Amino acid sequence: MRDDRIEARRIAAGLEEPVREAGALARKLGLEPYPVNYWIVDHDEMNELIAYGGFQRRYPHWRWGMQYDRQQKQDQFGMGKAFEIVNNDNPSHAFLQESNSLADQKAVITHVEAHADFFANNEWFGMFVEDAASPDAAAMLEGHAETIAGYMEDPEIDRGEVEAFIDAILCLEDTIDQHRAFSRAGSPRGSEDAEELREKLEGMNISEDVRRQVFDEAWLEGQEEAASEAALDDPRKDVLAFLREHGMQYDDETGRAEEMEPWQKDVLDVLREEAYYFAAQKMTKVMNEGWAAYWESLMMGEEQFAGTDEFITYADHQSRVLGSPGLNPYSLGMDLWEYIENSTNRREVADKLLRVEGVTWRNFQETIDFDEVADLLRPDPAIDAIRTETLDGLAELGPDDPRVDHEALDRALSAREADLDPDEEGYVDVDRYPWKLLTYEGLAERHFSLNKPQNRGFLRRIRRSELERLARYMFDDEQYATVEEALADVDYGAGWDRMREIRESHNDVTFLDAFLSEEFVRENHYFTYEYTRASGDFRATSSEYEDVKKKLLLQFTNFGKPTVAVYDGNFDNRGELLLGHQYNGVMLDLKQARGVIERTYDLWGRPVNLMTIVKEYDEHDLEIARRRNREPEPTEVGKRIRYDGEEFEVHDLDEDLSERIAATDVDYDTKPEDWLA
């Protein structure tokens, strides 16, 4: 046996206990993860898995080598180390790098358990599989790899043609309708009742801007339609499906478009299915990474899953991850989850306090002694500090106390009475794993967010407007005689319960739209920046929460990429494809757009047109703006770019078509008014 495999087995054996205990702790905390299989891999294997998107086998293509090289150089030049990768599957498979320290391995394991919970419970992941079945992604992707490899090796099919065809599809892999459940191309576009969807969206509390951009009325009504055609008043967002159903290939010998070969249709089906499988991960990056970082931090730090000799290493590595520059999904996601937890817990406490005799939303700030509230909210000492010598305090809480796992407590007391050694059967390591003696309710009280030092002023900062909203429909507003009596009824699990509800239904766009508040932006110091034509550089432009939300939503709507749909499959009655860029105030990169149009031609076989809107600047106005250090105001003009397989043409777009693709009042420009000439 190779030495490295022996080393991997040794490391795996040493991780059996952390894996077992992390899974048990995650479930105690209310998580419901898929079962996870853990694998130890070396540096090169880890880079290969990352290149393959977390799986051991993918279809043959040059993109994997490019991604492997990028990851290898990232490690080599110190731009970030890969600690793990986990895939969305049941069971999930997590790969740990053998060079990790024990502290890092434990952090990875707790992180992975939270990811597996998110995979298993978020509805957007469930849209890929039918009838709420579990995914079998590894088998699916391996089958796809075999299919495409078979075509690559077929002597009657040119390998270069297969690779070029894959290249063309990959240019369009994000032009799917990721908000619909996956279905085979040519099958009905959706059957979910529009009214049910409207009710679901209402419950998610999303804004009108997001509703218009992502879940508009035409989209909702389209859920009930089975037609596969595209029309100017009902564009088809799943471009790949439309090309699969109606696309052709240009035949140089006949000089005309011909039917696709069976292998081409098969490859298109395979890659479209993969695009839908990976869509949920792209749509929930902030939520998912923030969720995993939150529970990892609680388990490793607050529940001391990291030993005393491991905590400094863990804290150092965690701070680097959360402190990485740029738009950091770990940091943004974790900050938002903590804010949701704090906000929910604050409402829970305020709701109880407003029911105390003599307390109203008008006199709340003057009447409530916040120091007294902080003291009363502290967890019971018997729950807060669990050690072998304090077990009697837990027992004194009584046999019916819902916060105590009485079966585990009995075992621990018996082990202490028998003076068992750690290696003897029946021993309970209370000092190392105190959480084993608590239930979900006990852990919720032990970790109530408003008790944490960094959140102590959060209740005091509650706005009068929020207090008024809470009190508006409160009929039993004098339910308690004292503050102490009111706080005895606080549900310490309110924040965690709300977090799990949100984890089930939201994606990044709806998550940010619903919960990115003015208070959150102010407390976390978020701001926007814009490129200025006048100075040719970027400048900070706004710290207003509406502007910050606009910019963040831009990063995540349609995976942060332009939204393109099919508007006509027989444009101008000549069999030409008419695509439309659904303009939101941000121009396309026209050079890149032309490259994508060329690839689309390979899948359509006939001329391809793309409608878009460009910003044009008058040179005289631009020069004046430079002198005055202000920003010129552009003119927005509709254009239609046409490619016939040989050359491009650019035409002015009819006003009617310009209106169909132009934004209404949704615009992601946050330049201050005084920048405009």
From TrEMBL:
Span of domain SpoVR protein-like N-terminal: 15-351, 488-560
TM segment ranges: none
InterPro entries reported for this sequence: Spore_V_R (IPR007390), SpoVR-like_C (IPR057008), SpoVR_N (IPR056174)
Ranges of residues in domain SpoVR-like C-terminal: 562-613
Organism domain of life: Archaea
Annotated signal peptide: none
Pfam families named in the record: SpoVR, SpoVR_C
Protein name (database record): SpoVR family protein
Organism for this UniProt entry: Halobium palmae
Lineage: Archaea, Methanobacteriati, Methanobacteriota, Stenosarchaea group, Halobacteria
